[in-house]
Design a protein that fits this description.
Layout (H helix, E strand, L loop, with lengths): L1 E4 L2 E3 L5 H8 L3 E4 L9 E4 L1 H15 L6 E4 L6 H14 L2 E4 L7 H8 L3 E4 L1 H7 L3 H4 L8 E5 L7 H6 L5 E7 L7 E4 L4 E2 L8 E5 L4 E6 L6 E10 L2 E7 L4 E2 L4 E2 L1 H10 L2 E9 L2 E8 L3 H7 L6 E5 L5 E2 L4 E2 L13
């Protein structure tokens, strides 16, 4: 395996995660924070081995695979979909700090055959001129994961020409049960790796268990449908509990970007659903589209921070809000 960090060739054995993996120790990871604040979780080496080997097989990784990662380097997604997979497949791994201004340039320089992008990163890129002209014909598999997939995002990614575009879901609290699909947030029990079992609880949440695990895990993610075909609806801890109906942050963010915003972020603010946005937003159109939201505030901000450690837009981070809205 060869490792490059921001373009520099680095000894992979300098990373503690690599040493822990090769030694067979239990592995400490951090959750992504999409079901609350990020927290540290210990995973057995046996479970992580099942995850990694299934990912290698499902994604078709090989020695000539070239991975590009902008994922949180301390998170379960990075470890289970990038670092440990690169070790297992003995392929090249490029770690990059995410910068929306230079991301496309780095893609063109590296030409990865495999990469993963989170929905909020996609939202910050897909309206940029450079992104619109991005040619991904060199890419074997392009993955969207880490949160619920925005409507139209998978089809838009396919227009750039990768061989395959996948929607990947994983529960963040335990070694993730990973579901693969070519549709937006729609899966079936056939979408799982061979070492995973899934079920649906009496309260319509997704249950999952890797064979190396002794107990089932309730993900807390609401689903509708049957195991033969079901749709992920939202993470309970991520939803605003209003008396009228549950409101999904992703829906509000999408409404803002559909109405002209360059980037939008939705947070709960007391009894309010609060949209912060950058760019030129048609606020009247947003309010008409979101008339079902009981309490809604919309504020233009100078910037939405991209945390340099987590390398993604975070719902739980403070925002750079202009003085007008403080």
């Amino acid at each position: 395996m060869k490792l490059y960090i921001n373009g520099k060739n680095v000894d992979p054995y300098s990373l503690p995660d690599v040493k822990d993996w090769l030694s067979g120790k239990p592995l400490l990871t951090k959750t992504s924070g999409t079901s609350g604040y990020p927290k540290a979780v210990n995973h057995s080496h046996e479970v992580m081995q099942q995850i990694v080997r299934n990912n290698v097989k499902a994604m078709g990784h090989h020695k000539k695979t070239k991975m590009l990662s902008i994922l949180n380097p301390k998170g379960i997604g990075f470890q289970s979909m990038m670092l440990y997979v690169a070790i297992e497949a003995d392929c090249d791994l490029y770690l990059e700090d995410f910068n929306p201004a230079t991301y496309v340039d780095r893609m063109n320089e590296i030409k990865p055959t495999y990469s993963v992008i989170a929905p909020n990163i996609w939202r910050s890129l897909h309206r940029r001129e450079k992104w619109k002209s991005l040619d991904l014909s060199y890419c074997e598999t392009f993955v969207m994961g880490g949160d619920f997939t925005p409507h139209g995002a998978l089809d838009e990614l396919r227009l750039h020409g990768p061989d395959r575009v996948l929607n990947v879901y994983g529960s963040t609290e335990v070694p993730p049960v990973v579901l693969y699909s070519e549709e937006e947030n729609r899966y079936s029990h056939r979408s799982t790796p061979e070492d995973v079992e899934v079920s649906i609880s009496e309260t319509s949440t997704l249950l999952c268990k890797w064979k190396a695990q002794s107990e089932w895990w309730d993900s807390g993610d609401l689903v509708s449908g049957l195991l033969s075909e079901f749709e992920l609806k939202g993470r309970q801890l991520n939803m605003f509990k209003q008396n009228i109906q549950r409101i999904y942050p992703e829906e509000l963010e999408k409404a803002a970007t559909d109405c002209g915003a360059d980037l939008a972020l939705c947070r709960e603010d007391g009894r309010y659903a609060h949209i912060y946005y950058t760019g030129d937003l048609d606020e009247d159109r947003v309010r008409n589209k979101l008339s079902f939201v009981p309490k809604l505030r919309v504020s233009k901000v100078n910037d939405i921070k991209i945390d340099e450690n987590l390398r993604k837009v975070l719902r739980n981070q403070e925002l750079e809000v202009s003085n007008e809205y403080r």
